[in-house]
Specification:
The complex is a heterodimer of chains A (746) and B (154).
Chain A: H1 2-12, E1 45-48, E2 51-54, E3 57-61, H2 71-83, E4 91-93, H3 105-108, H4 120-130, H5 132-135, H6 146-173, E5 181-183, E6 186-188, E7 194-196, H7 197-205, H8 232-237, E8 252-258, E9 266-270, H9 272-275, E10 280-285, E11 289-294, H10 297-305, E12 308-311, H11 320-328, E13 337-342, E14 353-361, E15 373-379, E16 382-387, H12 392-403, E17 410-414, H13 428-438, E18 445-448, H14 451-456, E19 464-473, E20 476-487, H15 489-498, E21 522-530, H16 543-562, H17 566-575, H18 579-592, E22 602-611, E23 614-625, E24 628-639, H19 646-666, E25 671-672, E26 675-676, E27 694-700, H20 717-729
Parallel strand pairs in A: 3-4, 8-18, 16-17, 20-21, 24-27
Antiparallel strand pairs in A: 1-2, 2-3, 5-6, 6-7, 8-11, 9-12, 10-11, 13-21, 14-19, 15-16, 15-18, 19-20, 22-23, 23-24, 25-26
Helix pairs in contact in A: 2-6, 6-7, 12-13, 16-20, 17-18, 19-20
Chain B: E1 2-7, E2 10-15, H1 22-30, E3 48-51, E4 54-57, E5 70-71, H2 73-76, H3 84-91, H4 101-114, H5 120-127, H6 137-153
Antiparallel strand pairs in B: 1-2, 3-4, 3-5
The chains are: A alpha+beta (746), B alpha+beta (154).
The complex binds FE2/S2 (inorganic) cluster (2 copies).
One FE2/S2 (inorganic) cluster (FES) is lined by residues 37-40, 42-47, 57, 59 of chain B.
Chain lengths: 746, 154
């Protein structure tokens, strides 16, 4: 992405006085426009914050973190759909951190309500609320929001740009705009001549952006069809630039060691030996840790290991069992939320059979394939930070604060992300790189975490516990009464970001707990927040990642207690509540040829979770081979309404399931003496080529509202597997990871 | 200490202690960043390169122990002139975040060099050291089969 630097030099930095007729279309549909961050240079037209045209052609801006979900391609396709540009002829860049790139879907998800029951009216309130995303400069990627966010806005940006280009052609030829059409990156004149957009840039730049209406679905060329991914060739040739690949003239390499008892400080350190090691240039006191700047990352990593440090204690209990005892205390406090309370869950319906079970899941690391890193260069009154991140404007303001600069003095260059999964919503890596850069003015420094450092300094998926109570009667569920206890990622993230704790019910903590689309007459779900200070954050699907396991495992227990086939049991509950939820169950039932019985040595389990607007059902099949259990097959069905790019959606569903299965089988962060015990893949493994099930995915599109794709594949994975293991062995897993109780193939 | 390496057909003279792993010589000294750091302990395969055609974990090979010619992902093919296996990777839209893919491709390339038509079980065997946190395995498998076919037909 050297091109970002080039564009930035050429255009972003040119002051407004130097602009020759810049125009912008598109984002102006949201009341007043946020300032266009694209400052076009001579001969360029920034038709809006998303479309820049110059002599070389069309550049589209997809200011969303490309972390494997294909957003660069899908986002560009939305613009290109209306702009009549060909995806293989445009350049697509991420662009700078900017208010204009706010995410309009983040806020809509914060509305109270179950989600699937959203009326059209509330849906439009959600859209209106989304505009606050702009006020808050919520430039970011997460919560499976990108397509919901961009679907309308980006098509409008493309349509407005197209009409303005037609207007420019009309004025040049003294005709009216309606006499022109567009195709393949050119305006077509009435006599059939094609004027490439690039030729019209200067004239278009002088015009007011023209508003345009969106084309009907029947005219779509790109949306709904799978496009070749724009990043594929780079990623197959080692030329895609990740944060860790940034190379600058005179650059130094650094690594760090922060207190493994997170939140604790540093009493003292002795770097005498480290300072004398080869390649070492500087040892830096990082506050709660140390960093070494060297000529080579490995030399820096080795030297930082050689520093003798005395750490302070952690602000939380030292051992795992004490930690969970502390979390369990939250059950004794009033709940933070009771977001579902239907019927009377206090009373056991007469003649019903009651069952109870407790569940527990561990802390989890994100373990992105690319360890945390960032590169920073502090020059006089100017800081540049290169990194893969999911929240550019937040990263910008945090780095500015660290460097004692204003936000505008900080340039955030967002690269490809070697995995995000929610880890790169945080900004610790960028701030710590800035801290190092402050000690090395004028010298670009890349700060890289060792895998161990990365795994031991995560904002983990919180460890969580549930106490479930249910009742069945006549083969059906008549009562579900659950309590979940865990620390709140939202509260902690808001503390890290803004220094305050939001009040009111924490919906994210109980996502997937209070709103399973099941019709159960007596249904009460409470969320208890633990204030335990182990750092927690957003781990792919967040609250749904544990709540999905709790609810869908317990529903399975209820089905067995009711003597009903678990698939039929769920179908009955879903049909009476929300058709799309039943639809995905029907689909996996048909795909897997579910009969309700499995041959000796084979087990099957099903789970259905609704998250980020999308119901997903998964059936997992396990087989026992020579005493070892292998996950042999999986079937996934999702219904997200309009799928922008079906191949990408399928890949995301599989990927989400793989991430969930990996954690369910092998994932746990445990603590000893206040520090995470796991540090690297040998003790935090994931599914691999030979342990991955053969999988079939079906994408349904019956919903009217658009759902997300990046996360909803994850929540049903763990319960579907645990339910399959129950079917195979008769043993019910109420704790994860499953490797402790089952002899899984590794 | 000065060491001479042959990387992608070119000679490089590097001044680094002999114990520095090849991975970090490639990335930080020679500037070939296509080879990735994932774990540093031979557990992920992101750093896979070839030495004399054999797939090795470059995080585990000390500079002073490099015994032959080194080939990295950049040496396999370029965006303008991709190797057959890279083409198969693009055709099958394998990558997600893409971070593990250089290692996956280098591992698969050495598998195909030894075994022009690997079975699924042989692919499992050869590829299980290469982790992909995004879960691109089914497409990796499909791309290996396709590349095998393309190479046989070529
Ligand atoms: S970095 Fe070498 S195997 Fe992971
Ligand atoms: S594509 Fe992301 S780790 Fe493999």
């Amino acid at each position: 992405m050297a091109s970002i630097a080039k564009i930035a030099r050429r255009s972003f930095l040119i002051g407004s006085a130097a602009i020759i007729g810049g125009v912008a279309f598109g984002a102006y549909y949201v009341s007043r426009p946020a300032p266009n961050p694209l400052k076009p240079g001579d001969g360029e037209a920034a038709l809006n914050p998303f479309v820049l045209i110059d002599q070389n052609g069309v550049t589209l801006f997809a200011p969303r973190a490309e972390m494997g979900q294909g957003v660069k391609t899908s986002w560009a396709a939305l613009i290109a759909e209306e702009l009549d540009a060909e995806l293989d002829q445009v350049r697509v860049l991420h662009g700078p951190a900017a208010k204009a790139y706010y995410n309009s879907a983040f806020m809509a998800d914060a509305l109270p309500g179950k989600g699937y029951d959203t009326s059209n009216f509330k849906h439009s309130i959600g859209e209106a609320l989304g505009h606050f995303g702009k006020v808050l400069s919520l430039h970011g990627t997460g919560g499976s929001t990108s397509m919901k966010d961009g679907f309308k806005r980006m098509r409008l940006a493309g349509a407005s740009a197209r009409e303005t280009l037609k207007q420019a052609a009309a004025e040049r030829l003294g005709l009216s705009r309606s006499q022109f059409s567009t195709a393949k990156g050119a305006v077509i004149t009435p006599d059939g001549t094609a004027i490439p957009y690039a030729d019209l840039a200067i004239e278009a730049a002088k015009l007011e952006p023209v508003e345009a209406v969106l084309r009907p679905r029947t005219e779509w060329r790109l949306i709904g069809k799978s496009q070749p991914r724009i990043d594929m060739v780079e990623k197959a040739t080692g030329t895609a630039e990740f944060g860790i690949d940034v190379r600058l003239k005179g650059m130094k390499f650094a690594s760090l060691r922060m207190n493994p008892r997170q939140g604790g400080g540093m009493k003292s350190y002795d770097a005498t030996a480290a300072s004398a090691m080869p390649g070492v240039e500087k040892v830096i006191d990082m506050g709660a840790g140390v960093a070494v700047v060297a000529s080579n990352t490995w030399l820096a990593m080795r030297a930082v290991e050689a520093i003798e440090v005395e750490w302070e204690d952690a602000p939380y209990p030292r051992e795992t069992h004490q930690i969970f005892a502390r979390i369990a205390k939250a059950f004794e406090e009033d709940p933070n939320s009771v977001m579902r309370d239907d019927g009377d869950a206090g009373q056991l319906p007469s003649g019903a059979t009651e069952l109870k079970a407790d569940y527990q899941v561990p802390y989890l690391a994100h373990a992105t394939m690319e360890p945390m890193n960032a590169t920073a260069l502090l020059e006089r009154d100017k800081l540049t930070v290169w990194c893969g991140n999911q929240m550019p404007t937040f990263t910008q303001s945090k780095c500015a604060a660290e460097a004692g600069l204003d936000g505008e003095q900080v340039d955030i260059r967002t690269t490809y992300l070697g995995g995000g999964f929610g880890r790169r919503v945080e900004f610790d890596y960028a701030v710590l790189a800035t801290r190092v850069a402050k000690e090395m003015p004028g010298v670009p420094v890349q700060l890289t975490w060792s895998r161990e450092e990365d795994m031991r300094h995560d904002m983990y998926r919180p460890g969580a516990m549930a106490r479930m109570r249910g009742a069945v009667k006549d083969g059906q569920a008549v009562l579900l009464d659950g309590k979940v206890a865990a620390a709140s990622p939202t509260h902690q993230a808001m503390q890290r970001l803004a220094g305050f704790t939001p009040s009111g019910p924490d919906k994210v903590q109980v996502e997937g707990f209070f709103n399973p689309p099941y019709a159960i007459p007596n249904f009460r779900m409470a969320g208890h927040l633990s204030d335990i200070e182990i750092p927690v954050g957003f781990w792919r699907s967040v609250g749904n990642s544990f709540n999905g396991f709790f609810v869908e495992s317990f529903i399975d227990e209820m089905a067995h207690a009711a003597g009903t086939d678990p698939m039929a049991f769920r179908l009955d509950l879903a049909r009476r509540e929300w058709a799309p939820a039943a639809g995905v169950l029907e689909a996996v039932k048909a795909m897997s040829g579910w009969t309700g019985s499995t041959p000796e040595g084979t087990g099957r389990g099903v789970a259905m979770c609704y998250s980020f607007g999308t119901p997903v059902a998964e059936v997992i099949e396990v087989v026992e081979e020579d005493g070892t259990i292998r996950i042999a097959k999986a079937w996934i069905a999702c219904d997200m309404g309009q799928a922008i790019d079906p191949a990408i959606v399928k890949a995301q569903m599989f990927s989400g399931m793989a991430y969930g299965l990996s954690a369910a089988c092998f994932g746990e962060i445990t603590f000893a003496d206040g520090a995470a015990e796991q540090g690297n893949f040998p003790d935090y493994d994931a599914l691999r080529m030979h342990t991955m099930p053969q999988t079939e995915v079906q994408v349904l599109e019956t919903q009217t509202h658009m759902g997300g794709a990046g996360e909803p594949g994850t929540p049903p994975a763990a319960p579907a597997l645990a339910n399959a293991l129950f079917d195979l062995t008769g043993r019910r897993a109420r704790q994860l990871p499953l490797m402790h109780e089952f002899d899984l193939l590794v | 200490m000065s060491t001479t390496l042959r990387i992608n057909g070119k000679r490089h003279q590097v001044e680094l202690p002999g114990e520095v792993p090849l991975l970090w010589v490639l990335r930080d000294e020679v500037g070939l960043t296509g080879t990735k750091f994932g774990c540093g302990v031979a557990a992920c395969g992101a750093c896979t390169v070839h030495i004399d055609g054999e797939a090795v974990r470059s995080c585990q090979v000390a500079l002073s122990d490099v015994w032959g010619d080194v080939t990295t992902i950049e040496g396999l093919g370029t965006p303008q002139a991709m190797a057959a296996i890279q083409k198969a990777w693009v055709d099958h839209q394998v990558a997600q975040c893409g971070y593990c893919q250089s290692g996956q491709i280098m591992q698969a390339a050495s598998l195909l060099a030894e075994n022009p038509a690997p079975s699924d079980a042989e692919i499992d065997e050869a590829m299980q050291g290469n982790l992909c946190r995004c879960g691109t395995y089914p497409r990796i498998r499909a791309a290996i089969h396709a590349a095998a076919k393309a190479l046989q037909e070529a």
